[in-house]
Amino acid sequence: MGETNNWLIYGGVIIGIIFGVLMQRFRFCMVAATANWILIKDLRQVSTFVAVLLVAIAGTQYLEISGWVDISHAAYRNAQLDWWGVILGGLLFGIGATLAGGCATRTVVRFAEGSIHSLIVVCSFMFFAAITQFGWLETARLDMTHATSINLKTDAGLASMLSISPTVVAAIVVLGLLAILVHSIRKQAIHWSWIIAGAVIGGLVVFSWIVTGDLAQDEFDPRNPSAMTVSGPMARFGYLILYQKVPAISFAITFVLTMTVTAFVTALITREFKFTPVPKGMAKFAVLGGAMMGIGGILAYGCNVGQGLSGMSTLSLESILATVSMFTGAAITVKWWERRN
Length: 341
What we know:
By secondary structure, the protein is mainly α. Helices cover 72% and strands 1% of the residues. The protein has helices spanning 3-26, 30-40, 44-66, 83-100, 104-112, 116-133, 138-148, 158-162, 166-187, 192-215, 231-243, 251-269, 283-299, 306-313, 317-340; strands at residues 80-81, 150-151.
């Protein structure tokens, strides 16, 4: 195995271990952040998400502006703006995650902790992500993309589209996020550990760009930089189960596998692993929610990690549309669920 593949594997393992521990211990979740904010005005998880974005965007923009990593070549910044796909996919993902009881990473972690409900969600997620990416829904997905996407004259980055200096755009966004974070901390007493954990996750996003865009680069085998994501590996795991096609080992697949194993080991060490049955009447929501997450994650070109963290760090308009749509879908479903109960 060459040096390039080794860097992708080692990087995925290191990032997956740290990310898995943080996700298992702090129970970060897009759905929980949205629900806690809307229902009980709890800003801890929202503030953590802001801290993640603050560090991820600041670090990633530095990599691009300094020329360390060519972020403009990342998939999130391509010249084809599939605005309808990411909006529809984001809404489906947000709705599905709320029905399923957790976002992509939270569901995987709960599965690693012994939740049978989350096992059903994960299986449904993998199956529908696979058939949307590679199976009988692929043609419909591609037809929709061809019919609605816009070919840009530049890449999908905010600075490129607005013809503004990347440094100016990055500075405005970072200062805005910093102001939001300070306001949140002043409004509600938030333990420093939540902010530090968010900053570490943001740092992992930056490190993932360094691994794939610098350390794993080979002049004889150049590759576009990538970062953490879950929906793509989920689709490939589903493809393995459905069609017995073993996916090539990649940074993203190594990251997801390591995150899952780490969450499982952490749950065992802390004695939080426990087989828990599906709550009465919730199996249908597990299947439906997982299906919507799988379809939505592929349509949106990423989940709450792929688009919400990695994509957002590139300041891609496509990622912004996807992330806003995910949180919108989650918020709508949280309000619906509250009225239903």
